[in-house]
Specification:
It is built from 7 helices and 4 strands, in the order H-H-H-E-H-E-H-H-E-E-H. It has 219 residues and is α/β, with parallel strands linked by helices. It has a 4-stranded parallel β-sheet. One of its GO terms (biological process) is response to arsenic-containing substance.
């Protein structure tokens, strides 16, 4: 049940409240035996908070909150040793999580398939994916329209084997024992698809090199 005393949830519409309650049930089912209702609701509510002030489509917020809460719980399960599948985990970070990190994530997911796990985040998440990045990736047959800008959280960073930073500078989180790489990649913000293509191609080369380091042949 959604806690209506929670600061960001007091003004929920009936539809939003129902959507969050339904999301809590789904997540509880997925993480049965790992996390109880209180943990599920806490992650769902704090995930909702992350988007409530930035996104302007209220009816979409519960879905974003559920997706982000699911990712955070999956990360927590890895950190706590509940999920050990041996797959490497890569986290791509940039400023707005709208261009570079999303394109890198798109390439990594398409090329690695189910042999690795990849997430992305931003220090100052935007509200939409860069349209020029979407167009440039579509030219490579990769659809990134299903992604969305989001922040990172401690459990997501701690779950990563490799953190790839692109332009987030001192805002990028650092945890001992985690491998970090800084990719000097131009920011595609406000660029045309034609201008984004060299950035896209640079990211593809870097992702392929990363996969080689993991000994994962590209699909």
């Amino acid at each position: 049940m959604a806690d209506l005393t929670h600061p960001e949830l007091r003004d929920l519409s009936i539809d939003q409240d129902l959507a969050l309650r339904t999301a809590a049930v789904r997540l509880a089912s997925e993480f049965t035996g790992l996390y109880g209702p209180e943990t599920i609701e806490r992650f769902l509510h704090t995930s909702y908070d992350q988007f409530a002030t930035a996104h302007t489509v209220p009816n979409y917020l519960p879905l974003l909150a559920e997706r982000f809460a699911r990712q955070r719980l999956q990360a927590l399960a890895r950190v706590e040793g509940h999920h050990q599948d041996g797959k490497p985990v890569v986290l791509f970070l940039c400023t707005h999580n709208a261009g570079r990190s999303q394109m890198a994530l798109g390439f990594f997911t398409a090329l690695a398939g189910d042999r690795a796990v990849a997430w992305s985040g931003g220090s100052e998440p935007g509200t939409t994916i860069n349209p020029a990045a979407i167009t440039a990736m579509a030219e490579r047959g990769i659809d990134i329209t299903g992604e969305y800008p989001k922040p990172w959280t401690d459990e997501i960073v701690r779950a990563a084997d490799v953190v790839i930073a692109m332009g987030c500078g001192d805002a990028c989180p650092v945890f001992p024992g985690t491998r970090y790489e800084n990719w000097e990649v131009a920011d595609p913000d406000s660029l045309t698809p034609e201008q984004v293509r060299p950035i896209r191609d640079d990211l593809e080369r870097r992702v392929r090199t990363l996969l080689d380091q993991f000994a994962i042949p590209a699909s």
